[in-house]
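How it folds:
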Amino acid sequence: MTEDGDQRLADMVATLARGLVDTPDEVRVEQERDGETTVLSLYVAQEDLGQVIGRGGRIARSLRLVTRQAAQTTGRRVNLEIVD
């Protein structure tokens, strides 16, 4: 995946997260490449953290699954971290 592809994944994660939280202006995604893996760090407002993680971590797992599947089409590995 190219830098552009990494940025599209980061934008996708940010868009999904903004739809889940009460303060969408606080959402940001930082990306870091580590060899063949791209690490996306999702930051949200402290009071919105539970909405992004979900009951039992279900929403967080779903966000990670969607992100991995989107990256897999290009042969890259992506890890999504939700930063608290």
